[in-house]
Amino acid sequence: MPEERGAGQASSPWWQNKIAYQIYPKSFLDSNGDGIGDLPGILSKLDYLKDLGVDILWLSPVYPSPMVDQGYDISDYYGVDPCFGSMEDMDALIRELKRRGMRLVMDLVVSHCSDQHPWFQEAIRDPAGKYGQYFYLKPGRNGGPPNNWRAEFGGSCWDRLPGSDLYYFHTFAKEQPDLNWENPEIRRNICGMVNWWLDKGVSGFRLDAIINLKKDLTFRDGPADSPDGTCAVAKMLPQTPEIGAFLNQLKRECFLPHDAFTVGEVFSIAPGRMTEFGGPEGYFSTLFDFGHCVADRSGAYWYQYKPFDFQTWRDAIFQSQENAGNFVFLSNILENHDQPRSPSFFLPEGDDSYEGITALAALSVLLRGIPFLYQGQEIGMRNGSFRTAEDFEDLSTRDQYRAALSAGRTEAEAMAVCRRRSRDNARTPMQWTGGKHAGFTSGTPWFPVNPNYRKLNVEADAVSKRSVRGWYKRLLALRKDPKWEDVLVRGGFRPAFREEPEIFAYWRTGESSGRRVLVLCHYGRGTASVPFAEPFRVLLNNCDHLECREGCLRLRTYQIVVLACGAGEEEAL
């Protein structure tokens, strides 16, 4: 794999100037009327994605699965679940993407599997045998589980192995037993599977929960952070620096020989370890930046989190960019399948206007790193409509609702935090038209469509004078423009106007060209005056004009401008 390069270096890997787009297959487009999105539905929209400016398609899991965790509980790593189509459909998708100059990235979920996977079924049958060594099996303690670790979806990380006195470990749901990566045979099996998909034509992987591969084998108790005396498992797993042996094996035996693009889902690593995971010598091509998504965390549960604060959010993004420097190329997101919709989360209630949504888009896409869009983000889809706790499909949301009630919150208060933060918000069906079920299916959708689909859909956006998708197209085209690649792809990053409480601004600078671009946004109400005396040319503006007088730029509410600055960039306003 070619090395990742920082600002001013001569060459770049094939993926660095690309745009990625995540599809959650179950909710994208249903081709056969069974209410579940599928691979033929995705195939039918490849030209739509190509026209938007997408180069890399990241597909959430389509492997065979009992769907306890919406496909992230895999029972066969070598197949396609019939609800999504067939392996022939997968081959056609790879082929048609290649014909359009696009690439496919799969979800790699190898920290755990499904309890229906043959490996786990064999471990149940014979815990002392070969397959018992594929999992973490331990005796209990004082009549209970081996330690006080709390699973991501609530409850203990340990459940009884059926028919045995032993417990098995699971970071997530009890139906998702963790794989024992200490076992060389597990690693050989996983590497063989990864190479099988790469040989088939997949161009890389998003590595799910990859920090979880390495466990503290003492399995000691963690510091209690909940009234029930348990400790969040996420506090314990990242404390194991020896994970490099596992990740280097994947890189050496799979990723490097195929020049694969890899993006790690890595939470909670110290800034000093970023280059270990994502630098030129790192385990992965890039890392997702989640710093701004978790900047409001102030406890173990959602009901303890702080309200959205602009400066905290902005400064978390600045911090991530500065930690990465010119060495780690981040994957920048506003949304994904585990996050709420960005207009409903990063904008104050009632501010989800065209200006606010397009400001969010530009602020994210033009950061240093590779932009990742999520289905529906390009038209500004909003959070869903959930009236009761029974409306939620997501296991973690249900756990958060129960935790809020147990802490004394009212039902209304518990529902309010879940409506705002649930990942079910991202899983409502894609809104293609204003017709029945938003054009997602001719049948009954597996999950209710957001009621706002009659006004907010791809067809309506396409004919709007204030098209969000049209803004994204211009934005992505600017980033991919060869004239600006030295600045907006490989260029450096530096915060600007950091002392201004309602300004979100940063410089992108091309070291080889010397050209500079200022991304400048007024993230507040009213009008902001920003002193600025340099010559400039407007590359993008989400309002009809930019007012400039007496050495100041005057920005309206959520106005964002992208300015080419310096000598020779003057233009008449």
Keywords:
globular; disordered N terminus; five-stranded antiparallel sheet; 573 residues; eight-stranded parallel beta barrel; 16% strand; single chain; alpha/beta
Provide a compact summary of the structure:
By secondary structure, this protein is an alpha/beta fold.
DSSP helical segment count? 15
Q: Main sheet: which strands, in order across?
A: 1-2-3-8-10-11-12-13
Query: How much of the polypeptide forms β-strand, as a percent range?
Result: 15-25%
The best one-word shape is globular
**Annotation, overall tally of beta strands:** 21
**How far apart are the first and last residues' alpha carbons, in Å?**
46 Å
Helix content: 10-25%
Largest sheet: 8 strands, parallel, barrel
Walk me through this protein's architecture.
25% of the residues lie in helices and 16% in strands. It has 15 helices and 21 strands. An 8-stranded parallel barrel has the order 1-2-3-8-10-11-12-13. Strands 14-15-16-21-18 form a 5-stranded antiparallel beta sheet.
